[in-house]
Design goal:
The chain is mainly alpha-helical and 181 residues long. It is 75% helix and 0% strand. It contains ten helices and no strands.
């Protein structure tokens, strides 16, 4: 069932479950669904009516978080120049993706494909908006494809998770942004 077709209280429960899952899974990847239900203030049965498996909950949470990140573009563009907004947005995407890099272990291949299908368009749309704003401001070359930038930035979340890896990600992002100019 589409969450938008649910009763208001059921929608509120779903939001509470996702918020609790976000908080608890950020602290501990192996937190139980029972702990998530308790944190959300719902019965276990309520959680399972919304998410029949742990995998389904993690998939929904990941897609929700990616959409929430994609929705930050307008605010970033209000707060800073377009090239700086592009940099911050890509950095935040890389941090989030590095944190969630283990997601693949928790999901089946079919679910991984579903995640990519669901999250790809919001990310591409966000990148398109940022690239257009930077291009319109004369800060980058015109007609840069968001798919190309996304492929390039994939290197940022593949670096080692230590301090040296994070420094390397910074250098790589500098190279990417110089290439866009």
């Amino acid at each position: 069932m589409n969450p938008k077709d649910q009763r208001v209280d059921a929608q509120q429960n779903r939001v509470a479950i996702l918020a609790a899952a976000h908080e608890l899974l950020s602290e501990n990847e192996s937190v139980s669904l029972n702990a998530i239900a308790k944190k959300a203030g719902v019965a276990n049965g309520t959680l399972y009516r919304h998410f029949s498996t742990r995998e389904e909950l993690i998939l929904e949470l990941y897609c929700h978080d990616v959409q929430r990140h994609a929705d930050t573009v307008d605010q970033l563009l209000e707060e800073m120049e377009p090239l700086a907004a592009l940099r911050v947005w890509i950095e935040q995407l890389a941090v989030y993706t590095r944190m969630k890099h283990g997601l693949g272990e928790a999901l089946t291949k079919a679910a991984e494909r579903k995640v990519v299908q669901i999250t790809y368009q919001p990310v591409i749309h966000a990148l398109s908006s940022l690239l257009k704003a930077a291009s319109d401001a004369g800060q980058i070359q015109p007609n840069i494809l968001p798919d190309d930038v996304l492929l390039l930035t994939g290197a940022l979340w593949r670096v080692p998770q230590d301090q040296a890896g994070l420094k390397q990600a910074e250098r790589l992002l500098d190279i990417i942004l110089r290439g866009l100019r």
